[in-house]
Amino acid sequence: MHHSALLNVMIAAARKAARSLKRDFGEVENLQVSLKGPANFVTAADRRAEETLYAELSKARPGYGFLGEEGGVREGDDKTHRWIVDPLDGTTNFLHGIPQFAISIALEREGAIVAGLVYNPATEELFIAEKGKGAFLNDRRIRVGGRKQLREAVLACGLAHIGHGDHAVVKRETGAMLGEVAGLRRLGAAALDLAWVAAGRFDGYWERSLSPWDVAAGIILVREAGGYVSDCEGADEMLAKGSVAAGNETIRKEIIRVIKSA
Ligand code: IPD
Ligand code: CA
Ligand code: CA
Ligand code: CA
């Protein structure tokens, strides 16, 4: 399939970082693990993958700004473009040998997300989207699910780890949702949760206490797959608020209704 030059840059960088993640996943028992906070793990694998992504992306697009989970902000001369990168989304899964983790790369132009990539090296599933051009999984067009009723829907959610988020809110909201849906899942990698909504595997997803790199790429995937994303209050402030609610427009609104009443 023919991709734009921009997507080719993102794909090449992701494939290179994926090689290092795959090596580390195969020898996860030998990895250096440190704690950023309670149950907030970071490994040499996260750091290595981020450095590879930074090197590859800034070689191909010199001057673009870069925001990464591990390295923070790296300013560039070009103030209109910024990469938003999570080198390893789903570190806890990774450390447990659970093959649900991903590289997430988004490109922002003048504050708007214009391209997104989410790649799971373990399954080799590559989700990509560019503004106005649709969303794809390994070169096949993807669309959000069509179910309109929560009682038929399978949703993904987040369960913040120790020392993270407001557990009282998480309990209230997930508790309220349990009485409404066909199924509720917590797979543990926000970027993939959104990508799976884009692919119609999940009918919807919501989570709070997220960071821009968890969701920036996934947001454009869902939108280009015909879906809708807002923050958990229904506004368009996902990166600033660190929350998302996603699905087709009916399911997204239903999620907001249930969590508001929780
Ligand atoms: C985490 C995952 C997880 C979400 C957490 C994130 P990380 O990212 O996306 O699903 O619940 O809030 O921090 O730390 O594995 O990149
Ligand atoms: Ca992390
Ligand atoms: Ca993450
Ligand atoms: Ca991460």
Automatic annotation (TrEMBL):
Reactions catalysed, as given in the entry: a myo-inositol phosphate + H2O = myo-inositol + phosphate
UniProt xrefs under InterPro entries: IMPase (IPR033942), Inositol_monoP_metal-BS (IPR020583), Inositol_monophosphatase-like (IPR000760), Inositol_monophosphatase_CS (IPR020550), Inositol_monophosphatase_SuhB (IPR022337)
Cofactors required: Mg(2+)
E.C. designation(s): 3.1.3.25
Molecular function GO labels: inositol monophosphate 1-phosphatase activity; metal ion binding
Residues involved in Mg(2+) binding: E69, D86, L88, D89, D214
Keywords, in A-Z order: Hydrolase, Magnesium, Metal-binding
A Pfam family reported for this protein in Swiss-Prot or TrEMBL: Inositol_P
GO BP: any one term: phosphatidylinositol phosphate biosynthetic process
Signal sequence bounds: none
Family: Belongs to the inositol monophosphatase superfamily.
Protein name from the UniProt record: Inositol-1-monophosphatase
Classification of source organism: Bacteria, Pseudomonadati, Pseudomonadota, Alphaproteobacteria, Hyphomicrobiales
